[in-house]
């Protein structure tokens, strides 16, 4: 997969999350995803990360993620 294809997937993922379409966002995740949260926690698996997203959306329903530069994508 090219760098541009990877960037497109990341942008689609955050668009789905921002629109509250978490099921669509989950479909873009690798089953064995490992996510390092700013608190130092590590989330392993798409199911666990999906639960984290659901909790975050219920706690902060108006959360909106903005990608300011694509150099880190």
From TrEMBL:
SUPFAM superfamilies: NTF2-like. Pfam families: SnoaL. GO terms for biological process: polyketide metabolic process. Transmembrane segments: none annotated. This is Ester cyclase. It comes from Halotia branconii CENA392.
């Amino acid at each position: 997969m090219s760098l541009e294809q990877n960037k497109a997937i990341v942008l689609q993922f955050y668009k789905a999350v921002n629109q509250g379409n978490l099921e669509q966002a989950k479909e873009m995740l690798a089953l064995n995803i490992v996510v390092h949260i700013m608190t130092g926690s590590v989330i392993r698996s798409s199911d666990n990360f999906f639960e984290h997203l659901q909790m975050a959306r219920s706690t902060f329903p108006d959360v909106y993620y903005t990608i300011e530069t694509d150099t880190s994508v």
